[in-house]
Structure formats: C-alpha cells, structure tokens
Amino acid sequence: MNSRRDFLKTSGALVVSLSAARVARPFEAVAQSAGPYPDPDFRQLDSWIAIHEDNTATFSVGKTDCGQGTGTAFRQMMADELDIAYDKTTCIMGSTDVTVDQGGSGGSDAIQTDGWPMRRVAAEARRVLLELASSRFGVPVDALAVSAATITVRADPSRRVTYGELIGGKRFHVALTGNTVDATTGAARVKSVQDLKIVGQSPQRYDIPAKVDGSLKWAVGVAPAGMVHARNVKPPVAGATLVSIDESSVRRLPGFITVVSKGNYVAVVCQREEQAIDAAKALRVDWKKPATAPFPASEDLFKYMRAATPTSTANPVVVGNVEAAFANAAKVIEAEYDIPFQGHTAFGPAHATADPSNGQMTIYSNDMKSYGMRNGIASFLAMPRDQVRVVWMEGSQGYGRTAADDAGFEAAYVAREIGRPVRVQWMRSEETAWDTKAPAFACTLRGGLDAQGNLVAFDYMARAADYNHLGYNESDTVLIAQLMGSRRAQPAPGSAARPSEMYAIPNLRMAAHVVSLPLVWETPLRTGNLRDPNGPQSAFASESFIDELAAAANADPVAFRLKLLTASTADDSGFKRARSVAVLKAAAVAYGWDTRPSPRSPAARGTGNIVTGRGIAYALRSQTVVAEIAEVEVNRSTGHVWVKRLVCAHDCGLVINPEGLRRTIEGGLLHSLSRALHEEVQFDTEKVTSVDWSSSPTLTHADTPEKIDVVLVNGDPNPRRPDLPHYGAGETVCKPLIAAVANAIYDATGVRLRRVPFRNGRVLAALKAARA
Amino acid sequence: MSTMTLTVNGATHTVDVQPSTPLLYVLRNDLGLQGPKFGCGLGQCGACTVIVGRVATRSCVTPTSTVRGDITTLEGLSAGGRLHPLQQAWIDEQVPQCGFCQNGQIMTAKALLDSNPHPTDAQIREGMARTLCRCMTYYRVQAAIKRAAREAA
Q1: Closest residue to B100, CB basis, from A208, A395, A673
Q2: What is the DSSP letter of A287?
Q3: Nearest to A48 by CA among A17, A4, A3
Q4: Rounded Cα distance, A143 and A153, in Å
Q5: Chain-centre distance of CA A753, in angstroms?
Q6: Sign of the CA dihedral B86, B91, B97, B103?
Q7: At residue A560, what are phi and psi to the nearest 5 degrees?
Q8: What is the pTM of this model?
Q9: Are A370 and A96 in contact (CB under 8 A)?
Q10: Taking CB atoms and an 8 Å limit, are A700 and B47 in contact across chains?
Q11: What distance in Å separates the CA atoms of residue B28 and residue B16, rounded to the nearest whole number?
C-alpha cells in the first residue's frame, strides 16, 4: 500500500471542503490508514506540497503549532514563495506518517530555522510549475509571468494556465537535495525580502474559528471504537517503592476492567472516565517510604543549593582581571538572587489516546515534538518504528511540557497491555505536582564601580538545581520508564545559564554550577525545558543587579545600560549590539521614560498607600533582542503589586505576521509576569505540596495590565546588513520581564526584591524590614 | 446507573449513568460535546464551564442528577449559522493561543454580559478573575468582551 498516495487522495478531499473545515485535520486525514507508517521522504517535493485540481495547495510540514500561529506563518511563507493566494492554501502539521520530520516545536526555531526549507521547497514547486508551463506554451521561462497560481505568457496574456491545470491531483516526482531536513532544497532560489508580499501581512489565524465555535477536534477528544479510560496512581511520597496492590479494593466498582502495573508505575483501567477517576482514588496500594528524605523542604532549598557540592561546573567566561579590578574599585556591591522551581502547570493536564489496532500503535497526542514521541514510544515498546505513528492534534499549551510528554508513553503501554484503545489523562494534582519544572537558581553577583560610576568589574555565579534534566521523549528517562526502574548510567548533566546581553564590561567573570537534590530518579522535581529554560532565572539576577549598579552609580537605568552597550563598537554578523541599542531606545521612547536614577525620591513617591515606579530590563536569545519596561503600583499596606503597564520593544528580524507576533509577545510577557508575581513549587521533605490552582496560584484576569505596548523594532539599524533574516520569537520575551518588575518595585519603594515570586506577603515583609 | 433527561443546546437527551457523574463527562463522552474541557476537576479554572439556565456553571463539579434547567455549551452559542457576538469578537481580536481554556473564557463572559451588558473594566476583571488561562490571553479576552459589549450596543 502506498500511504503517500492515500494521503494525497485524502488531502485533496480535505481541500474540497476548505471553507467549511477551515482547519486541515490530520486526524481525519490519516484515521483510515491501517499501517505500516513509513517516514515521508523529505527529499521528495511531493512530501511537502500537493497542488489540487481546483488550483489550491496543501502544505505538509513537520512542525506543530502550540497556539502562537506558526501554522499560519508557514502558510504565508510558503504561499509567498509559491505565488498562490494565502486563502487558497491549507497546512497539515506534525503527524509522523504524513509530514516530514522537522522535529515538531521547540526553541522558538519554527520561523528562524524550519521556515527556510519550507520557503525553498515552495520556491522549487514554483520553478517546476514554470518549467511545465514553458513546455506547454513553447516559450522560455523568462517569457512567462506568474501570479495567484496562474502562469501567463507575457507577450500574450490570453495564453494562461493555472497550477491546478498543470499538475492538480498529480504528483511532482521531483527529487530534492540536502543532507538534513533543515538543508532541504531544490534548484530554485527563494525570493528576496523585497519581493515577499504575503509575508509581513497579518491574515487571521486559521485555527481560531474552530477554537471559539467548539468544532475543533482536540487530541483529548479522540475516541476510537472500544476505547476505555485509564488513570495513574502515583507514589504518595517521592521515591516510595510499591509493596503491594490490593485489587479487591476496586474490583467491584462500576466499570472496573483491570489494574496495569510494573515497578512503581500503577494505572487503573475502567470503562468510563469518571469510573477510572473514582477507581484510581479507591485503589489500595501499599508503598514503602524511602530511607532518606528525597529533598529539603522548599523553604530550605536555597540554603541547601548554596552548600551543595556541584555535580558539574562549566568553564567560566573570563574577561580581563576581575579580582584586580575589584581591589581597585571605588565601590563594590554584592547581592544574592533566588528563583524557586516553577512548574509548567499546563492548563490541561497531560493526555493521550493510544490505539493498538492492526498490530500497529497509533498515539493521538498534543506532544509538541510528536516525531520524538514516535521514536521514543517505538523504542519503549520495542516496536519497529514504522509500526508506530503519532497523530498530532491540538491540546493544552506546550511551552516545553509536551516536549517531554508522559501520557503518550503511558497510553501506549497500557493499550498494549490491555489490547484495546485507551485514553490516559492526568489529574490536576498529578500534573501540578509531577510535571516537569524549570530549575531553581541561586545566584551570587558582585560588581565594582570606579569613582566616576563606570562598571569596571562584574562577577556572576549561578547554581541551578538542574541535575538529570529531562530530555525530549527519551524511552529510558520518561517518567513511566523511571517508575519501571530505568536508570541511565550517566544522568544528563543539566546546565546553569549565564546572562545573555551585549554589555562591554572590561573585567568580567561568569560562572555556572549545577547541583543535585538527594533524589535523582522518580522525583516530582524533575527539571525540563520551560519557555526559555534558564533565561528568566539568569536574567532576573543579572538585570536586577545591573539596576542595583546603576542605582549605586546614581545613574538612570536606561542610560547606564546604553553606556555599557556602546562602550564597544564590536558587533556580530547579526548586528546584535546595534539592535540592542535600538530596542532599549525604542522601549524608552514608547514608554515616555524620564531620565533619572532609581529609586524615585521619597518626596516624589508621596505618602499614600499606593506608590508607583518603572523598571527596565533587556536580554537577547540567539539573534532576537528585547527590552521591556514595567510600570507598577505597589500597595504599601498589603504588599500587593499590580503591573499596570508593560512596554516591549522586540526585534526578531523579518516579521512574518505582525498581529500574530504581537499576541505571542503579549502571552509571553504575561506568562513571565505570572512567574514574577505568583509561581513557586512548594514541597515538604516528602512530596510536592503545590497541587492545584489554590496551592499553586497563577496570574488571573485581575492581575492583567491595563495597557501593553508592543513595539516591533524590525527596521534595520545597520545599512550594511544586506537582508533581514527571520529570527525566532516567543521565548526571548520571557527572559527580562521578572527583572523589569523587580526594578520597577525598587523604583517605586526603594526596596530591592531578590527572591521570586513577589507575592503580597513577601513584598510586605520586605517593605517592613526596610522601614525597620 | 440511573436514567436522566437533559436538555442541551435545545435538544433533549436521555443518558444512563451514575447520578453523581459530573456533568462534564456526560457532555463530553456521552453527548460528544468537546467545547467544555477538563482542566482541574475542582471548579477552580473554569475550563468546563457551561450555562445552566442563565448561570455559568462548572460542570466538572456538578453532579448530573442536580442539573435543573436547560444547558448551553460552547457549541450551542451560535444560532442559525451565525456566530454569537462574543465568538465573533474573539475572532476579531484573535484572542486564543492554544485555545484550551477559551470555552471557559467565552461562556463566563456570556453569563457576565447577559447579567451586565456594559461592564466596567473593573467589573470585567472581577467577573472573569476565576477563569484561568495559562497562555495568558487575558489582555485580549478583556478587549474582546469590551468589543462585544460595544457592538451589541
């Protein structure tokens, strides 16, 4: 059976109902295929693009859209290169048997990296279509014009042919080249930026209508015939081992089917969802507590981290002679910054449905790295890869959680054990306690100023609790594998980030250590990648401390940073220095920044309960640079902080869809604001005690700023740059926001907060301590 | 098990489930309505919100046997092929990111506007404060509610 041909047939049918369906649905596109499921060949043009008889096109890409509108952006880029109207296209993403493996999502690289092969293959399709038209009309290609999927002879526009007439419903049979999927290319060149017409516009996201009218098919809604429901039973104490299961405790419950268990992994299977929930609660399991505490309690975490012997230490970055510079400095200040574990706490707990029909294994999942999940599950179940497929469908937010998905592996395992389709879904307490966490950081910074207030020495040291950092969909480290006893000989070393900025500081040292908590395996404090995995932590410390140095120098925070940025003229090929200067200036202008040192003088602050202030911070990630300003109101009698206004100046190079980008930036800003104000994983010496939205609070409507200004700075500050590449967006904005809020609180109150999150009680205590 | 009759989006359904079964699972698994979602099972996040009579109700903590009144889900908001003004405002403002919480946002906003057609900013913040979103689309949700209120005027 040729699954490729099946796919083309199906996708043709999909396009016929384009206006009604609005969203290309991989579930419907592949549901009838019985397998096996060989990989689509990325070196075949037909794997990427299908032209239909009605002169529409379907693009198939190996990415997933976690809700930032990348699918819409891919269509814009590919439609532009192909010369077809945007609304005559659809996009299918992320299902391992119908789309090439571009890795799914992660690293904010969808546009920056994966957009290039998409553009090149679309340009190649256009080239091939022009060749076909050239043969048909008997004129050279350069005598042809192309627009809106129609090719005309320039000298005689009555001679015209559409793409659909040339190849609709048929295959290109054109081979591509490239050693990797990222390098995929044909003979055609992509257009110059000046010739792009759809890129830069803001067509509405195609996925939104079905999300607001209730018609979208979500991963969590898939229900193959005969599907049953499973719920996990987690160890009540981290590191506990299973002694025995008393199945009689649930055997008579309605709908009970079986208990599936291996090692410390336990799941209960029932006919109906609510039955599985009840049975998982009722199942009596005898667990043995570990001999030693798995971790210190969260209130003792930073003391523990600062005293622990590092498991690894990265080579420090050293410029000049830091100790000599400190010895000669007129003023030296030092500060410690602490950022706790913060969870992904996805809005919808982990879920997946697995179907073992036909001797294959199909997993319906919102895993943002569906291709990795397919490989991981094939390895976990020791099944041939081509008998396993993952059908990617929309689900609750990713931001890294679904890159290390658990439910897909669990569903596949349980489905194989019971021989029928099953949906596994985590409960709220399970997700909040046991999901992957952003590592906690304990940072120590020292800075030296000369008599003129110039920064002459900067010493950054971070300790991250990041040992055994979880990889993507690894069959030997995914939680179910750990619970079943899998132990990798060499746990992943983890990492501790250094600040990412372009300051020119003559004497500099940046050191980064990783430390481990006592329990390494089967721990609910497993670290994974959360929306810029380490950036918010390191930028909170470094950009808060730059603000402390500016205050010590009695300098305006923007002017102090601009001086550090312009102290050197050396720049990289992407002009990061020039663009850093540009975003700082753009943010200050958009905010209406008045030049003065922080904090605001007590006279200007006033004596009322509510005091206001502003703070700035800046960071970069890869080639994307951002500067952010927060304006806060602090209630001095309650400690409550309201971020009333946010400004973000953002440069990610060429912007594909400005309105889509603005919303992605807004979401990232507020996600980080939630981390600044609310989020902290709390635990005692046995278990995580943050288990729901009451014990693990998040930003709400009541916290929302009344104004958010996003300035897309993507003008080119350097005329030597020949073109504007498209860089990534999404994660960079998460880096500086926590520091911007801390700096604004300092400006408003004169009190420096060095411990995240800035919950009312902590702020109030700091205000009281400062008065004392 | 127990037989119960529910009116959902104008249609009558009879289901045979345990009376204590949360309404959410009946809507999703028996009636195939995928608008309401499971988010917490605790009534804390709002993902499961449906409207019973005129009241925004958290179906994950509502035993099916206690439901009194007609149920409207996200799928039932549009009428005669026309989107509800809130749904249209949601598209105009391009509100959702992942979209998983948006059922709760829209259904809670509908109950809010039904009882207060022209809420102040403070009333919107307060009225929506217990309806969570982890993609943090709050800023656009609030803009869309104001747009819908404005356009209904």
Answers
A1: A395
A2: E
A3: A4
A4: 6
A5: 27
A6: positive
A7: -60, -45
A8: 0.95
A9: yes
A10: no
A11: 14
Structure tokens at A770: 């400062």
Distance CA A300, CA A685 (A): 10
Nearest Cα of chain A lies from the Cα of B9 at a distance, in angstroms, of 13
The tokens for A296 are 């210190």
Preceding amide of A349 cis, omega within 30: no
Rounded to an integer, what distance in angstroms lies between the CA atom of residue A427 and that of residue A550?
A: 47
Using an 8 Å CB-CB cutoff, list chain A residues near B87: 212-213
Q: Mean per-residue pLDDT for A747-751?
A: 97
Kindly report the length of chain A. Answer: 772
Residue count of chain B, please give it.
153
DSSP A644-681: EEEEEEEE-BS-S-HHHHHHHHHHHHHHHHHHHHT---
Residue A628 is which amino acid?
E
CB-based contact A482:A468 (threshold 8 Å): no
Q: For residue A223, give the chain B residue with the closest CA.
A: B29
| pLDDT tens-digit readout, B44-69 | 999 999 999 999 999 999 999 999 99
A-chain residues within 8 Å CB-CB of B90? 208, 212
What is the ipTM for the molecules in this complex?
0.98
pLDDT in tens, A483-541: 999 999 999 999 999 999 999 999 999 999 999 999 999 999 999 999 999 999 999 99
Tokens 């009879």: give the residue.
B14
Contact status, residue A266 vs residue A275, Cβ threshold 8 Å: no
Q: How confident is the model at residue A341 (pLDDT cuts 50, 70, 90)?
A: very high
Q: Between residues 109 and 138 of chain B, which touch chain A (CB distance below 8 Å)? A: 121, 124-126, 128-138
Model confidence at A716, pLDDT cuts 50, 70, 90, reads: low
- CA dist., res. A515 & res. A62, Å (int): 36
In this complex, is the C-beta atom of B55 within 8 Å of any C-beta atom belonging to chain A? Answer: no
- Rounded to whole angstroms, the Cα distance separating A539 from A534 reads 9
Strands (DSSP E) along A154-238, which ranges?
Answer: 156-162, 228-232
